[in-house]
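Might I ask for a little of your time on a matter of protein folding? What I wish to show you is a protein chain and, alongside it, a tokenised description of its three-dimensional fold. I should value your view on which stretches of the chain appear to form regular backbone elements. You will find the record immediately after this paragraph:
***
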Amino acid sequence: MKHTKYLLVLTLLLTAMVGSAVAQSSPVGLWRNVDDKTGETKAEIRIVEKSGALDGRIEKSLKKDSAADSVCEECADERKGKPIVGLDIIRGGKKVEGKDVWEGGKILDPENGKEYRAAFTPIDGGKKLEVRGYLGPFWRTQTWVRAQ
């Protein structure tokens, strides 16, 4: 009886640890995006999963020279004139079967208003996220850091 309880507790602990590791190998969470050219941390972005697809919005601006009430002046869709904080910048993106990659979504650069095809790949045990934006055959990759 005592041995059975020990095995049950051990099984529950291992299940919780595996579940935690799986959750960390996902783009879901709070991220700090780091500019690949300047190394400056620009914002905190919260990525959630809705109906099997990714959705991400800017929760906090971390740019030193940014006004608190900045808006997306360069956006060409319904996001034009909307505040940068709270702006939806990731839409779509589904997990590729058998891989730790989410593709098929779009990401918006609120500084220039351009929207790019996107891929999201957790790396370094889920502590970092490679965010790749595609425009035709060209791409640019940023590495974001998990904030929590």
